[in-house]
Amino acid sequence: xxxxxxxxxxxxxxxxxxxxxxxxxxxxxxxxxxxxxxxxxxxxxxxxxxxxxxxxxxxxxxxxxxxxxxxxxxxx
Length: 76
Prior knowledge:
Elements: H1 4-26, E1 35-40, E2 43-48, H2 51-75
Antiparallel strand pairs: 1-2
């Protein structure tokens, strides 16, 4: 692959799947929760099942946005 961000993204997806399998195998007490980030233009909108997950999703969205800005400025 020519784009290093695509390679990093694919590796992160595989790492997440592996961590999910390991945590499911070790845990007997299951507590579910989650969050998501939706980008509308440059603005990240965070959704979560509770306040902790929404805050985590918002921080993740801001970090992704900042990485995009930094990477975009290095190209030009």
